[in-house]
Amino acid sequence: MVNLKINIAGIKMKNPVVLASGTCGFGKELADIFDLNILGAIIVKGTTLLPRAGNKPPRVAETYFGMLNSIGLQNPGVAAVIKEKIPYLRSFNLPVIVNISGNSKDEYAALAKVLSRTEGVSGLEVNISCPNIKHKHAGLFCQSLRDIAEITTAVKRVSKVPVFVKLSAEVSDFKQTVKTAERAGADGLSLINTLRGMAIDIKTRRPKIANVIGGLSGPAIKPIGIRAVYEAYNSVKIPIIGMGGITGVEDAVEYMLAGASAVAVGTATFYDPFASVKIASGLKAYLERNKLSSVIKLTGKVTL
Amino acid sequence: MKKIIEGRIIFNEKTSGGYYNMRIKAAWNAENVVPGQFVTLKTNENGMPLIRRPMGIFKIAPPHIEILYKKIGSGTGLLSKMKPGETISVLGPLGNGFTLPEGRKSAILVGGGYGISPIACLYEELKRKKVKILIVIGAKNKSLVFKKGLPGAKIATEDGSDGMKGLVTDLLEKLCQKVSCSTNVIYACGPEQMLKAVAKVAKKHNISCSVSMEALMACGVGVCLSCVCALKVKSGFEYKRVCTDGPVFDAGELDW
Hints:
By secondary structure, chain A is an alpha/beta fold. Chain A has helices at about 30, 80-90, 105-115, 145-160, 175-185, 220-235, 250-260, 265-270, 275-290; strands at about 5-10, 10-15, 15-20, 40-45, 60-65, 65-70, 95-100, 125, 165, 190, 195-200, 200, 205, 215, 240-245, 260-265. In chain A, the strands form 4 sheets. An 8-stranded parallel barrel of chain A has the order 3-4-7-8-9-10-15-16, surrounded by 7 helices. A 4-stranded antiparallel beta sheet of chain A has the order 5-6-14-11, with no helix packed on it. In chain A, strands 1-2 form a two-stranded antiparallel ribbon. The longest helix of chain A has 15 residues, at about 275-290. Chain A is globular and about 55 Å long. The two termini of chain A are about 30 Å apart. Chain B is built from 4 helices and 15 strands. Chain B has helices at about 75-80, 115-130, 170-180, 190-205, and strands spanning about 5-15, 20-25, 40, 55-60, 65-70, 85-95, 105-110, 130-140, 155, 165, 185-190, 210, 230-235, 235-240, 250. Classes of the chains: A alpha/beta, B alpha/beta.
């Protein structure tokens, strides 16, 4: 009998496989295809204070072993998320983590305050690494150590639930980046967000996505994600949700060996809605085959 | 309920207008599929291309469905090489199909490019319902016209090599002048610019018009928010998902 249960920053999950933000909506669409209860948790779509229309289409372009997207955080706003989306997810037996995005530390704090007091919300994922929205500074919040510290501190000050800070690997000093989030009080890290990329149609000479630059996801970015999780695991003590190009159980095990306590499945869900379910059952089989009693014994166990 | 099945390929052959026609045995109940719905196909089990390819349903023949496609990229290139007896991962049926408004006894069908596939599917359904059908097809030239099984179709080609020289909307305009706006309905599928022009003609003649939109899609089930189109709302516009809110929309609701 193998044990797939984990407790990550105080959130209890029946297994370490979760759905990544931005690839599972608010759960309803995928619940029409499979039983969400099979999974460890769901990290729902990036939520902002006010509704966001999102970016102009085309919003997506397929690239080698990956895809670029620039959705632009289309979401109905926090009030509608609390009123319409979270109550639906309460009928399932799985922790709901809400991904939050803002333009300032005050916006992040306002979101954290109201969402962390909403019944059915088990955790927050603070997205300070979205490549698709514009900030007052050029680039991403997480490219400034000061912004990481300020936003994380502001969210932690008001949040009643564990806080995961979602970071990009596109920073000059990744170890400093993760250490800054930990020092500011983050309970865990989500690593990694998409990486900024671009694709051009050579017939029309126009960028393939309307927003010009988008976030690269899928198997193409997996080695970068593994490296980031490995470096973070050796730099901080807080737990890590690993993500970036996980398509099968082998990828999930690799992320855990690098240091992840849980893994999030994203782009794979797009082309195989059952990808996360297959990974959860595959993980059990992997543990049995390797005579491991508990999934937690994988975390950080890469042999150097 | 959406399902993924391993569909067995019955045939996969070249047909009219440079298209390929594939028949797949679909284990989900093909009887519940309606014209205008689509499926997504994984053309390669592992590796490239990663993303499923959306395909309008061309024929509903339980327990089979058929699709119509052209070899244009890596996905359809692989698809064209598949042989009868092989299996392919099919996710579907997806999206909302065409509906026939109450009291409409005749329909004008407009198809352009790949849009001919769901239009041909709808043609069969309306024929069964004894609806009077006029059909117009637009293409760049004669070699690209698909008209198999569409008797009496009027053709417009940009170079005049088949039917009338001009755009499909020129043909539509002429037809609309002759029909009653209260008993007719227009159904169109094709490139966005064509649909926009069709919507304009329909509005001018005050004829109810449904269009089936095409869009780049990653998931097909409503979670990625890639395939959006703009719909008019009081405050301006709102992006709706082609895959789950559509692909069929009322032409008057779209913010062209």
